[in-house]
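Internal tracking record. Fields below are filled automatically when a chain is submitted to the structure queue. Please do not edit lines marked as system-generated. If the sequence contains nonstandard residues, flag them in the REMARKS field before resubmitting.
Queue: standard
Priority: normal
Entity type: single polypeptide chain
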Amino acid sequence: MIPQSELVNAIRHYKPQVDEDLVNRAYDYAKAKHSHQKRASGEPYVSHPIEVAYKLTRYKLDESSIITALLHDTVEDTDATLDEIEKLFGSEIRTLVDGVTKLNRLEIKSESSKQAENFRKLLLAMSEDLRVLLVKLADRLHNMETLHHITKPEKRARIARETLDIYANLAERIGMRRLKEELQDLSFQELYPEARESIVKRLEFLRKKGRTKVLKAQDNITQLMKEAGIEQVEVIGREKKPFSIWKKMEEKNIAFEELSDIIAFRVLTHSVADCYAALGVIHAKYHTIPGRFKDYISTPKNNGYQSIHTSVIGPNRQRMEVQIRTRDMHEIAEYGVAAHWSYKQGAPINTDGKQFRWIRELLEILEHSEGAEEFLEHTKLEMYHDQVFCFTPKGDIIALPRGSTPVDFAFTVHSQVGFNCVGSKVNGRIVPLKHQLKNGDQVEIITAKTQTPSPTWERFVVTGKARSEIRKFIRTQQRNEYITLGRAILAKTFKQEGHDLKDKMLEPALGVFQKKEADDLYAEVGEGLLNRNQVYDAVFHTRKSEAAGLKNPFTLAKLNKKTAKPKEFAMPIKGLIPGMALHFAGCCHPIPGDRIVGIVTTGKGITVHTMDCATLENFSDSPERWIDIAWDQQGQDEHHVGRIRANVSHETAALASIANVIAKEMGNISNLKITNRSPDFFELIIDIEVQNSRHLNLIIAALRSKDVVQSVDRV
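SYSTEM-GENERATED OUTPUT FOLLOWS
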């Protein structure tokens, strides 16, 4: 456990005027409150908040953040109260502790909705004060470091997945690269231990083999800078982290040996002018690799990150990535928002999270989402993707996830622009609304006041905000249609019995079916969730209820739940008429997550192909046979067969190793065929039952990390 004096000294190191008395009182208070508690490791519980506080000193945070870290578990896990904390430490710390306090007391049915609800609460808290997020991230980091003490493997996996999906992405969003990488690596170690170990071993081999080359490249770049008269330059060689390598192998569909930027070089300069001068020197000396240049100095990322990235053919014909930035930019790249902490200049601290555009956008999504789980789905979309930078006609920069379309652009500019979007121009040329935008595109949105969002837009938009707004509109539109239909159905039923339907007449039925207003009842009748006769019986208490076996009409709601017809098996494809014959093409094996198209086939109905299937060329002259379809997200619980081709070393236990990897990634081999043999290698075609394309890509990436696998690709 870190001693009290060491924690205070760590703060004093970057803030000499630290309020030592306040920090010491918080340390003693936490120690007293947690005195009878132990962690899963057997250590005193207070060691956890002290470790969290000490981690925050790395980012030079103020006393309020450090004290919040010391006290963040006292309200939930001890008899401490927020009023007591306010009395002892002030209202600011009370607010921060309240924001960070864990939300385990929420009575949520499923684990996924619990995670979603916790994230929703975290977002609201951090929008008021960003320090809440910083304390929460440090708390999660220490929990991940001690995760191995939890005995249940499924609980460890759930915590690691949540860390990877949410907290690592949040750390990246506020620019805290080092913290993000630590969270990713600890999660990777828990979720994919074999893949991580394989990558670490290969990195160790490369490190020993290439150390001389790395040092030589560093010396070459340093010498070039000196010869060009660029002073105060520091050149650093940095190895990519195992998780970063794994993600690149998965996303770019390449093997470990094909990665060109395992080692990246950082050139730290004194000024922005020196950055561009250094870039000129490197490009003059080495051949550049097309498409690998990015200038984040003139166009910073949303999290404030600034740097120039370029890839060149360096000494010994080796491809190498070079990042060029000033030392101030480097500090921001490492520590993100913490590097901006304004107490360094003696100014008041600006902790308002709403100043960050991405937080404002997430809050907008929160307002429009139907529930916590839908909100979590949209925010994951918002956080996962790399970015492209596009321009409005006036020259303003709009940052979007990679793969975004003009519809995403329109909703990002303003919700109303998205609602009224009818067309778009990219670089002066009219393009379809599903056109994927590229870096540097100038986008002009064509609008019409009468236009409303099309349900088909949801198939190709990628931003959480656009999808949330479209779904909200569809829900409202559908509800209005159900209300109109339900009112007509009930009016006809009531008229047949000699009554004119009025909203006030339905008040008895509102109580029976637990609805707030008549429109709720109409909507359920229109959607087919309620039977019109049941509603009539609930209003007039007729004998029809007794004929159905009901002694009391107020048991109708219970009967409705018991006798409701089971839901029909969900069709996995949207865009088809129910009852149409459907089968999946054997040439490309489409699975959920792939972009797909339907082809009308005589005698077979609809055949589903992936959009990049070579067979589609045969139908290029028959556009009338093409049907616009997409996967239904709600019908993806079933398994689909994906096919891969693997070239494997001809050695003992190679096949067992492959089967083991697939099983560990929750895939199931449904068919396996050896198509080619040689003394050194053999080629396999493997059919694997998976949930979606992401699941299959994870399996492919895991296979690529094994030494016995020379190559593996999807067929």
